[in-house]
Amino acid sequence: MNADRSAIAAPLVVDETDALSFAGLLEETGPSGARRRGWVIRRALAAADLIGLSLAFILAEAVVGGGIALDHLLLFAATLPVWVVVAKLYGLYDNDEERTDHSTADEFVGVFHLVTIGAWILYAGTWLTGLWAPELAELVFFWGIGVALVTAGRASARAVCRQTVSYLQNTIIVGAGDVGQLVARKLLKHPEYGINLVGFVDAAPKEPKEDLAHLTLLGPPDDLAELVLTHDVERVVIAFSNESHEDLLLLIRSLKGLSVQIDIVPRLFEIVGPGVEIHTVEGLPLVALPQVKLSRSSRLLKRTLDLFLSGVALLLLAPVFGLIALKIKLDSKGPVFFRQLRMGCGDRPFPMFKFRTMVADADTRRQEVAHLNMHVRNGDARMLKIPNDPRVTGFGKTLRRFSLDKLPQLINVFRGEMSLVGPRPLPLDEDERVQDWGRHRLTLKPGMTGLWQVSGRSSIPFGEMLNLDYMYVSGWSLWGDLRLIARTIPAVFRGRQAF
């Protein structure tokens, strides 16, 4: 998965003056002729859509329609190209190539709209033309199972594509300063993004941190166009280069003729979250930042979702709670639950519940292991996170590996002390280190999951965690919560940085 695709084919050196004339050949393949991510993922997703819709139709006919009629099946097959075209218009085939962190959860609304509108048009069209008159129950069954199968098929297609070399995007970062190195560090933490970092481009680079010493300084920005062709680069990230404003604009415009995705880290990126909107004043783009507050109706909607989902989860998971409790008692001495005061919404502390994963005297041994804190080496040791913590029990490692130790927090959610999605619940000693604007994170209740959990968990330093929490509370939306819940599931199964 981490193989360098540029090493598979022989390098191609092209003069910068030849770049534009050569660019047309690179739309679907690189200089080596290898298929690129966009070519592979678009076809895989289209196949997943066709298979999912066809299976949904066959099941609807067999289960509700009373049997599979050949003429109905042929009629539906004739409409399949139209489904693909509509999905293309919805933008359901292009986001994987453009966005590094795009997932099936991000496009669920688009899939829902596609199948909903398509099902009703199919129903109305066949009824009006007299070609077929399906029962309403059959239509509803097709719609429900269609949304599920298309979504599952797309997730499976992505999982398969991510195991191929073609999914990798060779990437160059322009700017080797603090921001450029921060971008590199975040990309390296997420191999599922399919980003193969070729190196940095910078005329005056900063000394790289120890964990980035293996990345190459490829040269100055003047060589970028040639480097894009030589290394079969698909993505260029502009990260606060030292180049002047005019030179940087010329550099970006020179890449427009090449088949390369350009990402720009915006100024004030710490407060520019995914919920921002762009509007213009006579062609000048302005970024509109949402206010850091929720209306009463939004809070009621969020609380309703928390109460319903946590209640259902507690009922369904009651047997799992019992099995885990029994295993904890058999594994080590001490209570089943670990209770700790955490800071809640409005600066009100509350007792947070977790399954105990450490030995009973773990708190008294805290100073013994403080020197093992992984955040000491990055200069921000305000959060204590210890890989291979010697205080963790054998069964505790398993619970942490799959975040099962957090299940009792459903009790906190049901009681109204926490939310399913929200800022990280900080222990009181860590909360004391949050000052000024960082206190806005407590505008909403702490969450079982959130941006911190799906973005890297324990590997994210304290300061970056505060930025993520601030972006979450300032750009809250119900759909954003549902998307984070969906993104939490694969993050839990990957189990990285779960300590």
What's this model, at a glance?
The chain has helices at 19-23, 37-63, 70-89, 95-98, 108-129, 136-161, 178-188, 224-230, 245-255, 296-316, 318-331, 366-369, 394-401, 409-415, 428-431, 451-455, 462-474, 478-494; strands at 169-174, 195-201, 216-219, 235-238, 261-264, 277-281, 284-288, 337-343, 349-355, 419-421, 447-449. The chain is of the alpha/beta class and 499 residues long.
How far is the first residue's CA from the last residue's CA?
25 Å
Structural class call reads alpha/beta
How are the strands ordered across the major sheet?
A: 3-2-1-4-5
Radius of gyration: 26 Å
Low-confidence stretches: 1-26
Count of discrete alpha- or pi-helical segments spanning 4 or more residues: 18
- Strand residues, percent: 5-15%
CA-based shape? globular
Number of strands: 11
The H/E string reads: HHHHHHEHEEHEHEEEHHEEHHHEHEHHH
Described by strand count, sense and barrel closure, the largest sheet is: 5 strands, parallel
Helix coverage percent: 40-55%
Average pLDDT, to the nearest integer?
84
